[in-house]
Amino acid sequence: MDALVIGLDEVGRGDVAVAGGKGANLGDLLRRGFPVPPGFVVTAQSCRRFFERLNLDPDLKKIGAAPEEKDFCAGVRTRIDGADFPPELAADLMKYWDLLLDRRGREVLVAVRSSATAEDLGDASFAGQHETYYYVTRDNLTVMVKRCWSSLFSPEAVSYRTTQGLGHEAVFMAVVVQEMIPAEVSGVTFTANPVTGDGGEIVTEASWGLGAAIVDGRVTPDHYVLKRLGFTLKEKRISEKRFMVPPHPAPGTTRRLDPVPHWKRHRPTLTIEQVRQVAEWSVKAEEHFGGPQDVEWAMAEDRFYMLQSRPITVLGREEIGKGLQGRWVIFKPIVENFTDPLTPLTQDILLLEAPLGFKVIRGWVYTNFNLIKALLPFRAKDENLARMLTEMGDKAPDLPLHPLKLPGFLILLLGFWLMTAVFLARTRRLPDDFMDGYRDLCRQVTEDPAYGPAAAMRRLWSSTWKRFLDPAGYMVVLINLSSARYMIGREILRKLLKLWAPDLGDEAVALLCAGSSGVLSAEMGRGICRLAQAARNNPAVRAVLEKYKPDHLLAALNNEPEAQEFLAQLAGFLAVNGHRALKELELKSVRWEEDPTPVLGMIRNYLLAEVDPEDHEREIARTRARLEESLRERLRKRPLEKALGLRWRVLKYVADRTKYFTKMRENSRFYHIMGYGVVRRKILKVEADLLQRGKLKCKDDIFFLRLDEIAQLKADELGWLDVEDRIRERRLEHIRLSKITPPRAIGLKIGPQAEASPAQPDDPRVLRGQAASPGRYEGTAHVILDPSLDLELKPGEILVAPYTDPAWTPLFLTAGAAVVEVGSYLSHAGTVAREFGMPCVVDVADCTKRLHTGHHLIVNGDEGWVRIAGEDQAR
């Protein structure tokens, strides 16, 4: 076939040499009734003739032998892009363009898509390495065709062909020109699970707008898993989709990446019926091509379009930590606060002052197990010790002491005490506002231009060790030491109650240790409640909150004269809590002070809930008072105790000390994140400068660079072209890793986290985890993935969440119980649940997937399990 341009419906699977892999597959699908957009193909022969006219063949044979291959490829691409377009080919293009317009009966934009003759084959896939251009018009069609041809010689494509053993001079580029679908939703469907290789699962990922945002790693798409048998839903995870490539270009702008409105970011992109429709067409493509397929698709006006189908060339899960030396266990205090891996820049910042023995492995923080084992004075199996480190349960580990290691450990403990005695003494009784000095330090560092991100982190973190008398320097020590004193106090209280009131369980310990005023994360939740109450009492503010969606609320409130007092209250709230965010240990996370939309969303939803959380807190206080009085009466039965009250005084003292250290630990996190907010401000300032200088092209790209790379960009040692591919690859890697649950240990095996109890034998309806707050509760589940947009938790519902941090606190004020996928006894979920007197089970693997809103649940916070008592209410 010697034609320069042919209709897409004129090619089939056997025409790879003419239309390239992508064009051949699409033409074959179109001819067999699949919903493929119409178009035409600029054949590979056109590319061959163009290259011959430029006499490129001698140069192509040198690729692979050139000492500076990257520069050599850039030279080849420049020659292609700068050459005149063949007039006879331009005439054919315009003829087929007019035919496409006649068929559609209106003006169209087209997508111009590379389709190499070695592409989308069963043993090789060039996905993402060749160019696709959107919004192409008649006037710039020839330019985009040349750019597709030149993308044959991108460094990535050349490297891939070299690895695959394909000759560079034997590969040519066809170009598919198709009507561009103004996609409201786009995505990709795999007819076998690309992570596990399971052919019984169909995985669909979707996001708003055109599919380029997914392909380039700009968004984390929604994730749906169907069982192949019956197309029943197995898993659904709705992501935060912050950016989109819009279906229509904005007039007069070259921007191709728009922010998604806040209210829409966490909305599901597809209904279950649409997920099934996509799966059905994808399975038909699999049956047609005879193997598992990777299908790109789009939806516009509720109509499905298939944009590409190629074989899945990589199946199976890459083992995290494979080939790594040593033994490592995951660092629970980090992973329990969010479920995604850290971005590269956050990793670098976090590890600036990390102690010896910490390592980031594929985005997750691990600690050196061998080092910890050498330091701890226990004689235990490796598995038991590793389980203790990764579970961080509520009870002291039942591990026998090692007599030979005990003296060394005591010496180490003594040395540590001598180093920190000043801090231990000064932190025994501090007022609630003792860390206000740290707020001043943060303000000073923010305003000082001499501090960059790394220097700011060092100043805010290292002040502990450099300025022993600086109150702001207590932060790090508090995080490490207060939790230890809290655990000691809790264990002493448990043993005393077991001795003096053996019929009381762990619920008594939790009640006696909770109820401390001044816990900042709890105060934050109460602050949002107060804002909701202020809105409820102001008819104009209430009307705005009920009328507008969250991302329009701030502008509407600013335009409402009666809302000024409410806005002043909101500003006061943000002045104290503005450094907080969802997933706040990740520096990429937007802080409330930058965008208060999540706070307004919580206020709005709380307003609609029409509940008074203070009623619940008053009931918990009354329950605690009854327990204390009952305990005092029980102890008074002894004559000496009745006269002196010594036992009650001891219990009260231990409980009060434990409450104090609990509050101190939780409040330390508040200021820790305040320091992270300062570092983020410094990063954003650097990012703005690099964007202005053209060294970066898109917001948030900076978080996928390393500290040294950012320094090189600032010093003009690197440019955009040097980092573009790194950013893209790291974004895609980050999304891929976000779908994988990290192993709790690397280099050693850990058995199940929880054993079946005699009361609850092995049962598929029972999900096991860790007890984080005692009590037993029965009620209806409500699965929430984002508290800023889904706060309509009805009073008494059971909160089911992937993780929690302080942004989730308002939900605890109305929930009857909590079930959390990642966490520990000392995590935010456990601490706040105990503060509010509600049962909580954490570390419940896959609970947000296995449980659904409407499930009737029994939550046992004493033993750490959840039972599905009914399926009929699930929705």
Description:
The protein is α+β, with helices and mostly antiparallel strands and 875 residues long. It has 32 helices and 25 strands. The protein has an eight-stranded mixed β-sheet with strand order 18-25-24-20-21-22-23-19, covered by helices on one side. Helix 31 links the parallel strand 22 and strand 23. Helix 4 packs antiparallel against helix 6, helix 20 runs antiparallel to helix 23 and helix 22 (550-558) crosses helix 24. It starts with a strand and ends in a 5-residue tail after the last strand.
Going by helix content, strand content and strand pairing, the class is alpha+beta
Mean pLDDT: 82
Strand content: 5-15%
Taking Cα atoms only, what radius of gyration do you get, to the nearest Å?
31 Å
Annotation, overall tally of beta strands: 25
Shape designation: elongated
Largest beta sheet, briefly? 8 strands, mixed
What's the end-to-end separation, in Å? 55 Å
List keywords for this structure.
25 strands; eight-stranded mixed sheet; elongated; single chain; alpha+beta; 875 residues; six-stranded antiparallel sheet
Write the topology of this structure:
Elements: E1 5-7, H1 16-31, E2 39-42, H2 44-54, H3 57-62, H4 69-82, H5 87-104, E3 110-116, E4 132-136, H6 141-150, H7 155-164, E5 173-179, E6 185-190, E7 201-208, H8 212-215, E8 222-227, E9 232-237, E10 243-244, E11 258-259, H9 262-265, H10 272-289, E12 293-300, E13 303-311, E14 328-330, H11 332-335, H12 344-350, E15 358-361, E16 364-368, H13 369-375, H14 382-391, H15 406-426, H16 436-447, H17 453-466, H18 475-500, H19 506-513, H20 520-536, H21 539-547, H22 550-558, H23 564-577, H24 597-609, H25 613-635, H26 639-644, H27 646-692, H28 707-714, H29 720-738, E17 745-746, E18 766-768, E19 770-773, E20 776-783, E21 798-801, H30 809-812, E22 817-820, H31 828-836, E23 840-842, H32 847-850, E24 856-860, E25 865-870
Parallel strand pairs: 20-21, 21-22, 22-23
Antiparallel strand pairs: 1-2, 2-5, 3-4, 3-5, 6-7, 6-12, 7-8, 8-9, 10-11, 12-13, 14-16, 14-17, 15-16, 18-25, 19-23, 20-24, 24-25
Helix pairs in contact: 4-6, 16-27, 17-27, 18-27, 20-23, 20-24, 22-24
